[in-house]
Amino acid sequence: MQNKLAELLEGKTSVAIGGHVRPDGDCVGACMGLYQYLRNNYKDIETDVYLEEIPSHFSFVKGTGDIRHQVQPGKTYDLFICLDCGDAERLGFSGPLFESAAQTFCVDHHISNQAFADENYIVPDASSTSELVFHLLDREKITKEIAEALYIGIVHDTGVFQYSCAGPETFRIAADLLEKGVDAPSIIERTYCEKSYAQNQILGRALLESIVFMHGQCIFSSVSQAVMKFYGVTPKELDGIVSQLRITKGVEVAIFLYEQEPNVYKVSLRSKEKVDVSRVAVYFGGGGHVKAAGCTMPGTVHDVINNLAGQIALQLEPEETKTEEA
Ligand SMILES: [Mn+2]
């Protein structure tokens, strides 16, 4: 795939890189890895990166100080590279730059991605977009700082190499990145494991208040705006709660909701074996992966869970779900 990037960059004088709203580790890693690579190796091309504010534990990644949070009116680029976005809407504020760019290129691993750019490099089986960015780069030109960014992306989207999306190729790439001098334990501790006291408290509360249903095959918990305010946490700081719910013995699907605005919930879905939660998320206007997906739904917690339960039940064995409701 190395030629693909070189081909696309031929004759270009300006390139914008954009990732999804509420950037996660993979989004930040893929964007910053590619950004540094272009800055180092294509000095004649004006390259800018556009992302919403990133979580502070990623700010040690080289180049994050250059991230643009606003679009200059009238600004256009020869090429817009869209990373880790399942659809153009997920770009958020940088969407107009995608629309106005002379050419667009999308690199992504979401199964729900419909190949919406001019050029697309979409591999739903890939662990992360950062893994795909790795394939676009000349290995010799991957510096330690680029390796750090890509390693973060892989670590975050694989749950530190534990999810099924982490295949043999993922480990080979991780090994290559380690050889560039990445301090893996420190990166994992600082960007993935570490939680603030408030984060641990709200996690504990979400676990205490969780409810299992459908004969213990599903579990859900929710956090209201009032509770988030009480603990002083932002939505980003709720990451990891759904994963903790998912590991409950006997559970097939874990659902975590937080209230985005009154009676509108951001829904995170995780599954183990039987249920393709991306199908459930797409049904409700969202997207994602087979075992990790999300959407936004209106209604009360009860409405949202009932609606989700109906779609999840369609994928579970009838005898396991009969006469059950949320
Ligand atoms: Mn990703």
UniProtKB/TrEMBL annotation:
Residues 15-154 form the DDH domain. Signal peptide: none annotated. Residues 227-299 form the DHHA1 domain. This is Bifunctional oligoribonuclease/PAP phosphatase NrnA. It comes from Faecalicatena fissicatena.
